[in-house]
Amino acid sequence: MPKYYEEKEEDGRACGGVREDLRQCLLESPCVLQEKKSPKQCLREGHCRSLQVTFFACKRSMLDTRARFRGRKGY
Asked: Cα(38)–Cα(33) distance, rounded to whole angstroms?
């Protein structure tokens, strides 16, 4: 189960769960903790790639008119 659902308050924004998990993944990555790089730099280097793709798919589904019937992707 994603960390977002464990003892967290509900984020009213779209794709909030994926956004929170992506942020936590970046902040806990060795790139940020040991190499002292910014989360933005670590994201460009490819850390937490699967969550980044999921977040992109969720944001893209908001613009898709078919999403009214299918629902947003992500969680």
From this structure: 9
